[in-house]
Amino acid sequence: MNSKELRRKFLVFFESRGHKIVPSSSLIPDDPSVLLTTAGMQQFKPYLTGKADPFKDFGSRNVFSIQKSFRTTDIDEVGDFSHLTFFEMVGNFSFGGYFKETAIPLSFEFLTSVMSIDPKKIFVTAFKGDEEVPRDEEAITLWQEQFKKVGMEAKIGERIYLYGREKNWWEAGPGPAGPDAEMFYDFDIPHDTAFGKECHPNCDCGRFVEIGNDVFVQYNKTKESKYEPLAQKAIDNGRGFERLVMVAQGKKNIFETDLFAPYFELLPAELELRIKRIIVDHLRGSAFLISAGVRTSNKEAGYVLRRLLRRVFVYEKQAKLPDHLLNSIVHDLVHDYGEFYDELLKNADIIREEIEKEKEKFSKTLELGVKELNKAAELDAASAFKLYETYGVPYEIIKEMGGERAVSLKREDFEKEFEKHQEISRAGIEKKFGGHGLILDTGELKAANEEELQKVTRLHTATHLMQAALRKVLGEGVKQAGSDITVERTRFDFSFVRKLTDEELKRVEELVNFAVKQKYSVDKKEMPFEDAVKSGALHFFKEKYPPVVSVYSVGHFKADPPEVFSRELCGGPHVKNTAEIGSFKILKQEAVGSGLRRIRATVE
Of 457, 468, 500, 581, which one's alpha carbon is 20 to 30 angstroms from that of 286? Predict the structure, then answer.
């Protein structure tokens, strides 16, 4: 089966088993504490913690998705047989719908029926228990029953292996936690004793590869580190799509599959395989980041994008690749993946333009950087960081091109130089603002001191006005999809199917400034949630609100009839009068994902 057929089969299988198909969320998550979306569960966190109702939002407690994901921790490892930056996660989730008794048979059926894997090739791991939480007998018994259905005896230590918390336990600090059961595919290659006397599913010799992980969220970890049973249990099953394709196509590594091989054919045959893998992986990841609204910069996701592209450009220059080659690969990537992720097709021109723009920008400094690199008699962490800071030459390129001169250069030393630079910058900021630490951090709003608190408060109220203005200009289909406010700007994500025209952006800006000049009062009232909704108060649909909520209204309330410009459920803080906001200015708009836009704005 090719990868496109597999996608369709996965969707049909889970939909036929009572799951609501949920589209992939953006690579830029709603959660401001996370840089990029790293797992299928990320968009479903509010349902896992009970802050949102899956039945209300999806019409089911059981959902399925193929999620775009990105992990920056593996950038330096890309080039070997398995590591990637961008990847996809195939996941089924249940939030109080079903638990182990359904999840495990479903996983077995998925592997043996949908993927047609021989059960003899499947091995399983489970939690062995400790002094705090008992052994997962239920999962062990259920897995044994699945193998028994196909005439196999699944003994512990032969077909089912038990491990402790380091392998078969999931938690993220206080909150939901639980054991997991992992599924492995046996490539049946000889064991390498360099990795231990005996082979087992978690051995690193290459015989086994993980193809699924059922997390059983059944405990709540208290602040005192005690584990209490959860009233509503949940299932989180994640599988790497690239690995599933590898197994389905009978390949020994992910790069031999149809997800990568066609792009390798566009590159020169003599080019080193490791470099081919880096180029294709980085271009694929860059295309998805750009389609999500990321643009190259020296911070956050923009820095990740710049790092990927510049590494590709260095290899392009080294290998003297034809000018059109990278563009050809990007073109094919966009059209192949665009069948499933239409935002790639919609942003095809932007993707190519952004890559070309960064290439032109980098080419001006790259030659100088390489010349300086070649001059250096020895390359240590300090000189390597100077090359990076001055010319933008990435660490891995310095290490590679430096050869014997960079033999003592280590990533951790380079990172220490980077941290030193950050500390110097941070010291400058502390001197500028007279202190450090946060006096306000709601997740959406952050402020380090009273001066910053006043600024983010003005921006917060301005964001309410902007949402109201967007709905007046674009219609009531506009709904909030996330926001993040710092002392420099407000970032507001909302549902809308196309790019706003310059005239529409101007009208939104004018409406907000109109509200500021009207010197509207900002009124706070507490009321039952149902009454708040009836009053027309806007609210973030993914949140689960308490029975009594705070409603902030902006307008002239003594007028007859009262004039209301904006009304929202919110926790504050806000200005008392819109005149405190000052002038409002939209900085830019960008795409976040399919059907989602983002506006960045500030106040002066």
Answer: 500
